[in-house]
Amino acid sequence: MRGSFVTFEGIDGSGKTSVARKTAARLRRRGLPIVLTTEPTKTWLGDAVKRSYREPVSNFTEAFLFMADRATHTTRIEELLRKGTLVISDRYCDSTYAYQAARLKGMVKDPMNWLKRISEPFVIEPDLTILLDIEPRSGLRRIAARKKKVHFENEPFLRQVRRNYLALAGERRFVVLDASRSLDEVVEDSVDVISSRLRVSKGLR
Ligand code: TYD
Questions:
Q1: pLDDT band for position 199 (50/70/90)?
Q2: CA-93 nearest atom, ligand 1
Q3: Which ligand 1 atom lies nearest to the CA of residue 17?
Q4: How far apart are CA 175 and CA 171, in angstroms?
Q5: Hey, whose CA ends up nearest to atom 3 of ligand 1?
Q6: 4-192 falls under which CATH superfamily?
Q7: Which of 14, 78, 100, 118 is the most buried (most CB within 10 A)?
């Protein structure tokens, strides 16, 4: 049986990485075959993406770097799904639709749809996307102590990114969780949402 594909999305400071890790660990304890993956990926393509944070490039180049990394990531995800794995990704296509649509505002007509259209051949639609929603100010407060800073981490920009995410969340595959709560509460909800949604479609116990 084909596996399932779940993605976690949210602005910087929403807690995605911690929530995705803990959720995957909890589901793994139930004996599910799970692979946790992330974007930017831990490959030279992901390194190229991260290099663009330190050595700025044009907004178009930035968008294509994220998408180049994703195209190869998708091939790997598809292989895992064919083996029946539950793949959980910390960020995927919606990060580009939310962040790069904000970066390309005014540079291309209807950036979100433009990005979706060009992504079509190398993106697979997740079965479930959990959007960890938080006010940018609270998110930024959480990550204020981090040494490594990315230029996306500023409040007006993240407000636009959050709006883009909430617009995307109109699609049925999305579940929006309040990420201002404690890590344990958000993990609990994520485990519940994944088990109930995928049980219905895939017969998981
Ligand atoms: P993230 O994984 O959140 O970084 P960290 O490991 O430091 O928590 O991703 C790094 C940044 O890249 C983040 O600000 C979001 C941004 N990003 C995009 O703008 N577009 C994309 O398609 C992706 C995957 C990430």
A1: low
A2: 22
A3: 8
A4: 9
A5: 12
A6: P-loop containing nucleotide triphosphate hydrolases (3.40.50.300)
A7: 14
Ligand 1, CB cutoff 6 Å, lining residues: 12, 17, 39-40, 66, 91, 95-96, 99-100, 150, 152
6 and 87 in contact (C-beta within 8 Å)? Answer: yes
Distance CA 18, CA 144 (A): 16
Sign of CA dihedral 134, 91, 105, 13: positive
pTM score of the predicted model: 0.95
Taking CA atoms only, the protein residue closest to ligand 1 atom 9 is: 40
Q: What is the pLDDT of residues 92-136, one digit of tens each?
A: 999 999 999 999 999 999 999 999 999 999 999 999 999 999 999
13, 154 contact by CB (below 8 A): no
Measured between alpha carbons, how far is 77 from 165 in angstroms, rounded to an integer?
Answer: 23
* Ligand 1 centroid from CA 90, angstroms: 9
Strands (E), 11-152: 34-38, 86-90, 128-133
Helix then strand then coil, in percent of the chain rounded to 5, is 55, 15, 30
Q: What is d(CA 127, CA 172) in angstroms, rounded to the nearest whole number? A: 10
Distance CA 205, CA 200 (A): 10
